Amino acid sequence: MQTPVLPPAAPDEATLTSVADRPLRAAVRGGALDLLRFLASLLIVIYHYGAESPLRIERFHQVFSRGFLATDFFLMLSGYVLGRAYGASTLTGRISPPRFWLRRAGRVWPAHLIVLAAMALLVLALNALGTDAHKPSRFAWDQLPGQALLIHAWGFPSDGWNLPSWSLSALIICYALFPFLWKGISRVRHAWLLPLIGAAIYGLFELLAGRVFDHALADISFQFGIVRALPLFVLGACLARAVEMNWPSEAAARVLLLGGCGGLVLLQTLDRYALPSPLLFDLPSLAAIALIILGAGRLPVKRPRAWIEEGAKLSFALFITHIFVGVIYWSAVHKLIDTVPIGIGWQWLMWLAAFPLAYGAAWLFHTYVDQPLQDRLAPWLRGRS
């Protein structure tokens, strides 16, 4: 099964609010959606680092093999947050489509290129020292240009280098379509229809994946990531438009949020591969995620928490840097284990140490690279000198 990992989502990346993206109201930060974004980013890292543990961690619980749910959350949340942040501005013409595209490119490409360049330099340095990076087959030089251009989820090979960046590549197409998508869904006059329209579009793409790829959407190859990302993004935008129309009521939103969380937790007790079809797990799980986003998005954040907001802000940095950190750390760890006899207890401790290292590196990247760069780009991206 192929799974990322934003976000993403956006990776996701694309759902974060930077200086260049101020239209998103401060009132939505530090609440339930930010907390869920933080937890989803943690699940993605656990999934990607799980293969390096002394024992496959999915033996303890199958939830650790379901990073694809966190990716789906980020992709859906990307459509939701961009709808709330830019929907009204694109509809009135205050932000033109070219300006919107420039802002999204400025948010995604600089950080992506910096991390990818650092990864390429690392592989070159290790090769010069006469050793290979951990899992060297993942670093095929002919795939590097496609990743740099972020076209590798458009049908090109996408199984190496900074693997989670496939979702950024897919979201580029979603960004290009967003101004026209928002105008289309804004013509719908009944808010309750919007989630149904989004669900129907997702269902059509699920049928397409089964016919063309003979897989569920969650299982198709990363190189066709746009097929997976687009319907989730559209569904998220439909949820955003419904919330803008003050639907559902706050009382109903609380029920949806609690029901979605409870349903998603209960679904984790199921064995996806023991079911007659993986869709019997995937579709209810996506419905639960949609209910969570709709419910949490509709409820006002009455008591924002700074630590939740800061954790969520690290999601993009964590998303694009944790593979790079892993290449360094796991190359050293496996070299040490191959050289020196190390007990299983110490191996588990070394595995656990990877997570604070990943978050520490994400904080450094966000604080000293990404955020200062966005601050410098903000006036230009906003069209001011």
What does this structure look like?
With 385 residues, the protein is mostly helical. It has one domain. The protein contains 11 helices and no strands. Helix 2 crosses helix 9 (279-298), helix 3 (97-128) packs antiparallel against helix 5 and helix 6 packs antiparallel against helix 7. It is globular and about 65 Å long. 43% of the residues are buried. Mean pLDDT is 88; it is low at 1-27.
Key phrases:
385 residues, mainly alpha, 11 helices, disordered N terminus
Put the structure in a nutshell:
The protein is built from 11 helices and no strands. It has 385 residues and is mostly helical.
Layout: helices, strands, pairs:
Layout: H1 32-50, H2 67-92, H3 97-128, H4 144-149, H5 166-185, H6 193-212, H7 225-244, H8 250-267, H9 279-298, H10 306-339, H11 344-381
Helix pairs in contact: 1-2, 1-10, 2-5, 2-7, 2-9, 3-5, 3-10, 3-11, 5-7, 6-7, 7-9, 8-9, 10-11
Shape verdict: globular
As residue ranges, the low-confidence spans are: 1-27
Largest sheet: none
Distance between the termini: 48 Å
Q: How helical, in percent, are the residues?
A: 55-70%
Our estimate of the beta-strand percent is under 5%
The count of domains is 1
Per DSSP E runs of 2 or more residues, the count of β-strands stands at 0
- Report the radius of gyration as a whole number of Å: 20 Å
